[in-house]
Amino acid sequence: MESPISSAMEENQPLLFESFFNSISLPKLTYHWHVLLLSTLACNLTIVISRILSSTLFPRTYNNLQGLKRLNWDIHFVSMVHCLVVVLFSIPIFWDEELIRDKVFGYDNYAGNVYSIACGYFLWDALISLYHVREFGFGFVLHGACCFGVFLFAYRPFLNYYGAVFLMFEISTPFLNIHWFMDKLGLTGTLAQLINGVCLLTSFFGARIIFGFYMSYHTLQSVLPVIDQIPVFLWVIYGTANIILNILNLFWFVKMIEALLKRFNVGDKKHHKHHHSGSKSTAITTTTTISTTTTIKSDGKAKKL
User: What is the pLDDT of residues 116-127, one digit of tens each?
Assistant: First the structure.
């Protein structure tokens, strides 16, 4: 039989959490903080899974990686799992009746859990970048922290409907990660990487440029009629972040096109050079000697390792 003391503790515990989250203007986080923490812990567990699977499936490549290079492989693995999960889980939010009725201040428990998964990942990303800040740079810490902060405001609640829109940006991330893994597996400059590159550019342009710019305008249309109900700091933060992100998406898209063209143009030049010199190993040389020290992280930023 349950004691009156334990029963009282169980009843008071949610009230204590509710009081705390109300005090920081994030009342809905009362129902999702545990999902957020579990997501962060799951990222660490995924690192372990990456080490087991990668050493089994790609022993020659993975086992030869040392230190931060191996960690970077594991980070890309976590990124791959996260982007696939949040994209799939975010799709139903677009048809959520509660959020459609109020796209600015509406709240839905399912959407809150999806954003908790994303927040947990961004928190983990910020922490691991902070731990390796000397090697990765402070920019990655700032990126993780900003993404964490922006999605955290969903628990006011605020823009729960449009949170799914920005998680759709992750549609291009699997192709970014595949591109990175192909480089490590010695598939640089191959037909497979070219096909993946086309898929990357197509998904990036469709999700982040066309869909992203359209939904940014749609968000503005929803916010303007009720802007007097929104704290100034909040719409300034979201407005500034949206403008910067759209500019960065354009910048990254141009850079990705340049990188892809440069990579395969180098192959053409090498092919042309070896063809005139009478080399018998033209095709092999063309695909194996193309190299680059700059790779694009899952969020589209350049990183050297």
Answer: 999 999 999 999
pLDDT value at 290 more than 50: no
**Angle at Cα 184 formed by Cα 179 and Cα 185, nearest 5°?**
95
Q: Among residues of the chain, what percentage have pLDDT more than 90?
A: 61
The Cα–Cα gap between 51 and 152 comes to 30
Q: Which residues contact 107 (CB under 8 A, 6 or more apart)?
A: 28, 98, 99, 157, 160
pLDDT band for 265, please (50, 70, 90 cuts): low
Report the predicted TM-score, pTM, of the whole model to 2 decimal places.
Answer: 0.80
d(CA 156, CA 152): 8
Per-residue pLDDT tens digits for 69-111: 999 999 999 999 999 999 999 999 999 999 999 999 999 999 9
Report residue 281 as tokens: 């190993």
